[in-house]
Write a structure and sequence with these properties.
- By secondary structure, the chain is of the alpha+beta class.
- It has a domain at 182-344: Histidine kinase-like ATPase, C-terminal domain (Heat Shock Protein 90, 2-Layer Sandwich), CATH 3.30.565.10.
- It is 56% helix and 15% strand.
- It has 8 helices and 8 strands.
- It has helices at residues 2-17, 23-74, 88-138, 145-172, 185-195, 197-203, 221-237, 293-303; strands spanning 181-184, 206-212, 216-219, 244-252, 255-262, 307-311, 319-326, 338-344.
- Strands 6-7-5-4-2-8 form a 6-stranded mixed sheet, covered by helices on one side.
- A hairpin with a 7-residue loop joins strand 6 (307-311) and strand 7.
- Helix 3 packs antiparallel against helix 4.
- The longest helix is centred in the N-terminal third of the chain and has 52 residues, at 23-74.
- The protein starts with a helix and ends with a strand.
């Protein structure tokens, strides 16, 4: 009874008291919250803006340098390089651009050297022919069969240089038309060697062939014959009388290798790859051909999915040129008998 009365009395007191909230305190609290949020937002914007500016500067400055370098490269300044930045992703980009610049610079150097070499190769026969003609006109030189033969030889050399340059240009641009048919590499290499045999007999150089028949590749027979002709002719040119040139062919893994080895002048180690450059001649005191034969041989081999490499133990110790070509699957007899193996004595 007393407990019930006390509860009712306390409830009546709360109703009579009518607790009224303090509006000024509430407004001040809300204002403080708004101010804190605004300050936090401004601070966040300032920090974010500063960080963005830092990151942007750190990224955009190297990109701007890369862009400036590419513009200079496009203008022909191939010696330009980009400073490699600390950011790994941009460092990769800078290294790629520097690699491109180095390649362009090397290409430009080769182009300039090629122009100079072509001018030299064309100038020599033209000067000779011009000298003979002026001598004939002025009456200083009496016409003779020997002089006419010499002029014809120079004209032939001039024609060969122009023809080889045209062939190389078509090979580089991949526009040279090639037939695609099965070619027995062993038989072709042996046939080329046999066709050149009179030149070996005339110079007094021994020729030996050891080629296996039945190993076929898919390619252009005439172009592959040109490869072997250039290599065998090159070996003959750099081998003195009494020396030996060997032509061998055999299966090697999934391909076939044709090797032309000689006992001639040899090649220094630093020149083993340079001999394939246009107009490059090993400085051995002898000059043969146009300086394009090995370049053409390698280009044709690569157009067939193969390659040509040079090997030598040094000057005076002979040289070996190895042609590697992929074989035609399912059409080869790796255990086929040797086509021919003979030593031809001059």
């Amino acid at each position: 009874m007393d407990g019930t009365f006390a509860s009712e009395a306390f409830a009546s007191y709360l109703v009579a008291a009518e607790v009224v909230p303090d509006t000024e305190v509430n407004d001040a609290f809300l204002s403080a919250i708004d101010s804190a949020l605004l300050v936090s937002l401004l601070v966040s914007l300032v920090v974010a803006g500063g960080f963005a500016a830092f990151v942007s500067r750190r990224i955009m400055r190297p990109i701007a340098r890369v862009r400036a370098t590419t513009v200079r490269l496009a203008e022909g300044h191939y010696a330009e390089r980009v400073t490699v930045p600390d950011v790994e992703e941009l460092a990769e980009l800078a290294r790629d651009v520097n690699g491109l610049a180095a390649t362009l610079e090397a290409t430009e150097q080769r182009r300039n050297r090629l122009i100079a070499d072509v001018a030299h190769e064309l100038r020599t026969p033209l000067t000779t022919i011009k000298g003979y003609m002026e001598g004939f006109i002025d009456g200083v030189i009496e016409p003779s069969d020997e002089l006419f033969a010499s002029m014809a030889e120079e004209a032939t050399r001039l024609q060969r240089v122009v023809s080889d340059l045209g062939l190389l240009s078509r090979l580089d641009e991949a526009v040279l038309e090639m037939q695609s048919e099965p070619v027995d590499v062993g038989e072709l290499a042996a046939a080329v060697a046999e066709r050149l045999l009179p030149q070996f007999l005339d110079k007094g150089v021994r020729l030996r062939t050891d080629t296996a028949a039945g190993v076929e590749v898919m390619g252009d027979q005439d172009r592959l014959a040109q490869v072997f002709t250039n290599l065998v002719g090159n070996a003959l040119s750099h081998t003195q009388a009494g020396g030996l040139v060997e032509v061998t062919a055999h299966r090697f893994g999934d391909g076939v290798e044709v090797e032309v080895a000689d006992t001639g002048e040899g090649i220094a180690p630093e020149n083993l790859d340079r001999v394939f450059e246009r107009f490059y001649r090993v400085d051995t005191g002898s000059h043969h051909g146009t300086g394009l034969g090995l370049t053409i041989a390698r280009s044709i081999a690569r157009a067939h999915g193969g390659d040509v490499v040079a090997r030598s133990e040094g000057i005076g110790r002979g040289a070996r040129f190895v042609v590697s070509l992929p074989v035609l699957p399912g059409r080869n007899r790796p255990d086929a008998p040797r086509l021919r193996e003979a030593a031809v004595e001059p």
